[in-house]
Structures are given as C-alpha cells and as structure tokens.
C-alpha cells in the first residue's frame, strides 16, 4: 500500500533528506585518492550521528556500513572496507541514508576521483541527467511508468544499459516502502501519482549491457562484463506545484 504523507510528515522528511544530502555533499568533498572506503564511511557516519540522526543503512538487513560505497564496475551495495583504497581515475558511488524523527532520507551520487576517462565522464553526465528527467516526469496525475520511461528513454537512446533487477522505491517511516520505481517501463502505466506521495528515483546505469551479478560477500553488485556503472538518487515528494526534491543539502 502506498502511503500519502501529511504536511507534518513532509517537514520531517525534509529534515531527514537535508541531513542525508549534506552527508553526501561532505562525502564528495572528502573523497580522495589513497583513502579507504572505510575512512569515507566513518566521515559519513560521524556527520549523520552528529546531527542527532541515525544512519539508515547501518545494520539494515545486516549491512555493516553507514553508506554503500561502490567503485567503477560495482553498481550498488559496496561494503566499506579498511582494505579497499580509492585510486586516481576511479568513479565512486556513495549511497547515504539518515533517519530522524521517525522518517528516512536516501540519496546517492557517483563522484569522479581526479582525472577520469572520457567514458566515465560521459556515463556520469548521462546518469545524473536521467535522474532529473525522471523527477521532471513525476507530476500529479502522471504514473510511475512515466517516471520509469523517462529514465530509460534518456539512457537507452544514448547507448547505455539500464539495470533492471534493482530500482527506486517509496520512502517515509520505512527506508523502503511501496511503490517500486523501476528505471524502465511504459509511459501511462503503473501507480497514479497523487500529492503527498514520496519516493526515490535512482537510475543505476551501465556503460554496456544491463547484466549484473552479486559477489560472494552477498551484497556487492557488479556489472557482468566489468564495464563501468553509475548511480544517482534523490528522494522526492509529489506536490500540486510539481515534484520537490527532499534530499538537496
């Protein structure tokens, strides 16, 4: 069942989203070649806790980090590690969530570390742009399929692969709520959007095919062919005046 939030709920979600967005911004400012993914995770954790919030991901389903940190061909759910060092030329996806006053925020961006390849640069540009294409389609009276189709059309028309096994999701008192928000679909299909709905749009886009696999750690998802992958995400609210991004810092 899709929950519709009150104005009071949305104000609380905006606070959770703001903390999540600021934690992500801090991660982008802190990331550098040579640092471990665990060190980056600690920066994110300490910021969220310092705001009086809780990291939404820590312990969720047994996940051991406060952020998912995924590098290059890692699509999502990369586990922070003392052994994994970020290198010059990497692209690093950082997925962050914070919970405060009973509501969650959830946001992600993929960052370029130093000078990256033209292929990586273009992937980041297309994936981020597709996020905003999806958000733009999220209008009162539209359907989830309109959002999904906007993301898919933007990426596929430019030759990229859209991950199908994972998708965006409703958000609120729970980190993952209904409805699911795929990054592919038919316009005019799916749940109709009404004011007060809140969900995450999160394109996960590969340079080549859509194929993925899960590593033996049970969490980290990588591209099957080893090609680069990028991930961007915002939590949004549907309003009569258009979609509002809840996770801007």
CATH class categorisation:
Alpha Beta
Compute the number of helices.
Answer: 4
CATH topology grouping: Creatine Amidinohydrolase
- Spatial arrangement of strands, main beta sheet: 8-7-9-14-15
Strand-residue fraction?
15-25%
Secondary-structure topology with pairs:
Layout: H1 7-30, H2 37-50, E1 54-55, E2 67-71, E3 74-76, E4 91-100, E5 103-112, H3 118-136, H4 144-156, E6 161-162, E7 168-170, E8 177-181, E9 198-201, E10 204-206, E11 212-214, E12 221-223, E13 229-231, E14 234-237, E15 244-245
Antiparallel strand pairs: 1-4, 2-4, 3-12, 4-5, 6-10, 7-8, 7-9, 9-14, 10-13, 11-12, 14-15
Helix pairs in contact: 1-2, 3-4
Describe this structure in words.
The radius of gyration is 17 Å and the shape is globular. The chain is α+β, with helices and mostly antiparallel strands and 249 residues long. The chain has a single domain, classed as Creatine Amidinohydrolase (Alpha-Beta Complex). It contains four helices and 15 strands. The strands form four sheets. A five-stranded antiparallel β-sheet has the order 8-7-9-14-15. Strands 1, 2, 4 and 5 form a four-stranded antiparallel β-sheet that branches. Strand 11 and strand 12 form a beta hairpin. The longest helix is centred in the first third of the chain and has 24 residues.
């Amino acid at each position: 069942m899709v929950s519709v939030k009150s104005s009071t709920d949305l104000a609380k979600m905006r606070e959770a989203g703001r903390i999540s967005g600021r934690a992500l911004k801090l991660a982008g400012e802190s990331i550098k070649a040579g640092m471990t993914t665990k060190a980056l995770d600690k920066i994110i954790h300490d910021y969220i806790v310092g705001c009086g919030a809780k990291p939404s991901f820590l312990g969720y389903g047994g996940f051991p980090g406060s952020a998912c940190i995924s590098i290059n061909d890692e699509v999502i759910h990369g586990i922070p590690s003392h052994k994994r060092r970020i290198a010059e030329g990497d692209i690093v996806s950082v997925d962050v969530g914070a919970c405060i006053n009973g509501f969650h925020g959830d946001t992600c961006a993929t960052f370029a570390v130093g000078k990256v390849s033209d292929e990586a640069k273009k992937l980041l540009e297309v994936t981020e742009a597709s996020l905003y294409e999806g958000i733009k389609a999220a209008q009162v009276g539209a359907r989830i399929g309109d959002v999904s189709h906007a993301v898919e059309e933007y990426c596929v028309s430019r030759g990229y692969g859209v991950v199908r096994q994972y998708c965006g999701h409703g958000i609120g008192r729970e980190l993952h709520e209904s409805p699911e928000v795929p990054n592919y679909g038919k316009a005019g299909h799916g749940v109709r959007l009404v004011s007060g709905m809140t969900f995450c749009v999160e394109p996960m886009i590969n340079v080549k095919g859509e194929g993925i696999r899960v590593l033996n750690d049970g969490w980290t998802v990588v591209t099957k062919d080893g090609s680069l992958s990028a991930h961007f995400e915002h939590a949004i609210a549907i309003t009569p005046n258009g979609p509002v991004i809840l996770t801007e810092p």
